[in-house]
Amino acid sequence: MRGAGDGAACRVEGVSKAFGAVRAVRDVSFAVEPGSLTCLIGPNGAGKSTLLHCISGFLRHDAGRIEIEGTDVSRWPAHRRARNGLGTVFQTTRPLERLDVWTNAMVGCHAWTRSDFLAGILRPPRQRREEREIREASREALALVGLEQRLLDAADALPIGQLRLLSIARVLAQRPRVLLLDEPVAGLRAAEKRQLTTVFRDLRERGLTQVLVEHDMQFVGSVADRVIVLDRGAVIADGPPEQVRGDERVISAYLGTAVL
Amino acid sequence: MGLSAMVAIGLSLLMGFAGQVSLGQGAFYALGAYAAGLLSVPKELFANGLGLDPLLALAAAPLLTATVAAVVGVPLLRLRGHYLAFATLALHLILLSVIFGEERLTGGQTGLIGIPALEVGGRTITGNLHTAVVWALVVVCFVIAQNLVRSRAGRGLQAIATSEASAAAAGVDVASYKLRLFVLAAGFAGLAGGLYTYLLLYLSPDAFTLLISIEFVVMVAVGGLGSVSGAVLGAVVVTLLQYYLQKFGTRQELLGLDLPIQTPTVARIGVYGLIFVLVMLFFPRGLLPAFTGALRRLGRR
Q1: How many CB atoms lie within 10 A of CB A200?
Q2: A70 against A254, higher pLDDT
Q3: Do B152 and A78 touch (CB under 8 A)?
Q4: What is the pLDDT of residues A14-58, one digit of tens each?
Q5: Mind spelling out the 3-state secondary structure of A216-241?
Q6: pLDDT tens figures, A3-25
Q7: Which pLDDT score is estimated for A256?
């Protein structure tokens, strides 16, 4: 079995989620190996994003359990999961418009820093040290996605491709060990997609575990180690891209449209 | 003016940075005022007075107000947007009916008299000295707000204003952050209320109508959302405007014409509302951003 080892970065076990009578996710199980890049694909309404949000904690699953690095996080709120190494990038992440690119990335550092209201108001030396650390870490995160030239630009002045890069820099500033991304290349132009492909490959080289929900099959084929196909809330295929590509059930789920 | 500025600073944190509109800051202002009054009025003058040292009562006013905010904030802050605005407005209404209704506790319609003056080291703090103390405390509140905005917590709050979900995704405990800021803003309002008590040494419920809650929001919006100095500017502009409109309205005649007796009310509420509408139409981001924007454009030329 792929990724069934005990050292799984992320494990989903018998997870189900229903919205009223609609069973969006049905008894899904899989384990993601550390340092791998997994893509969740499937036709519209297959439950991909629902599953992703159950893992990130924005939806509470009805049954089953979710583990991150061996810890059961099923009952944790989203912000607690974020503080324990889980990074999530939404399909549409709006930046803090009034602030510059750098400050936007600093928001991500919230996950591993401690200074709270009182420290922010009184500014003891410990808080200032932490602020310096935050500035450094967020600058590094921006450099990873190639935005270090735009540190002081207003976030709302960025084109959509760079906004996407900014949201990825922000999540990298969180220093996540497991990264969840919901359709990271949707709506981007070819050049921007290529740039993001490089970013995801770099992150994979750095040992970051990534789980992506994605529609763009060309992109999936170029980055994924493993593809999990969902249809009507259940897993219908699971394996390396070349294997999934030939799977009959996958082809029929997509009703004969060219997959991968 | 300084008192309004203090409340407005707290509200600008709530509205301009964390995106939470509160129409109940007047309630916290009133709460601070009555707390200070009741704690310091001597028993001989008012049965439920505690006769504490005014300085102690003044220190207790923001703390008590903040405590109340911490309790009511838990259910209130589950509401968002307009719902939160109206629920906080309701809070003000409830407080007013308590002040009017519980006469034995609050003095009711007659008000609360016999409040002793604030005294520090043998000097009575009234008049200009009181104004100076108020503005010194405005500076303290300003620095607190400014530091908070530029800190990790401030960034977390601004992330909440943009999207609560994405703030939580960055590890921000959204509910707790909103509550803590609500408590801080209420504390500022409570302090301002306490200082108001020792300005007049008399409390009447008429000073705490619903209008003041709305005025605080107007001050923040007119001055400029998302800027602490904007809130101070807004408080100054709105207070001055009201003062002059009132003065103008009480004139007997204008350009040889007799003015009707309704003029003060029309001037105070009508003209003031009109000016607010005009500011929002022409400077939707507020006066301070409009002003600095104009300066920047001039500088570029």
Answers
A1: 22
A2: A70
A3: no
A4: 999 999 999 999 999 999 999 999 999 998 889 999 999 999 999
A5: CHHHHHHHCCEEEEEECCEEEEEECH
A6: 444 689 999 999 999 999 999 99
A7: 53
Give the residue from chain B lying closest to A181, CA to CA. Answer: B169
Domain ranges of chain B: 2-300
Residues of chain B contacting residue A60, judged by C-beta atoms under 8 Å apart: none
Q: Which residues in chain A are contacts of B153 at CB distance < 8 A?
A: 115-117, 119-120
- Contacts of residue B286, Cβ cutoff 8 Å, sequence gap at least 6: B221, B222, B223, B224, B225, B227, B230, B234, B279
User: Structural domains in chain A?
Assistant: 1-85+177-260 (3.40.50.300), 95-174 (no CATH)
SS3 of residue A67 by DSSP: strand
> Count of alpha carbons within 13 Å of A256, Cβ hemisphere only?
0
| Alpha carbons B301 and B297: distance in angstroms, whole number | 7
Alpha helices per DSSP H over chain B:
2-12, 25-40, 54-76, 81-101, 103-106, 127-149, 152-162, 164-169, 174-200, 210-223, 228-249, 263-265, 272-282, 287-300
Q: What angle do CA B35, B18, B92 make, to 5 degrees?
A: 35
Residue B201 CB partners (closer than 8 Å, separation 6+): B115, B116, B117
Query: Around B91, how many Cα atoms within 13 Å sit in the side-chain half-sphere?
Result: 27
Picking from B148, B160, B162 by the largest number of A CB atoms within 10 A of its own CB, the best residue to mutate is B162
Interface confidence, given as ipTM, is 0.88
Mean pLDDT score, A206-221:
91
Closest partner CB to B151 (pick from A79, A87, A115) = A115
At residue B96 the predicted structure's pLDDT band, cuts being 50, 70 and 90, is very high
pLDDT digits (tens, 9 = 90+) for B186-195: 999 999 999 9
Residue corresponding to tokens 């998302």: B226
Q: Which pairing describes strands A234-239 and A226-231: parallel, antiparallel, or unpaired?
A: antiparallel
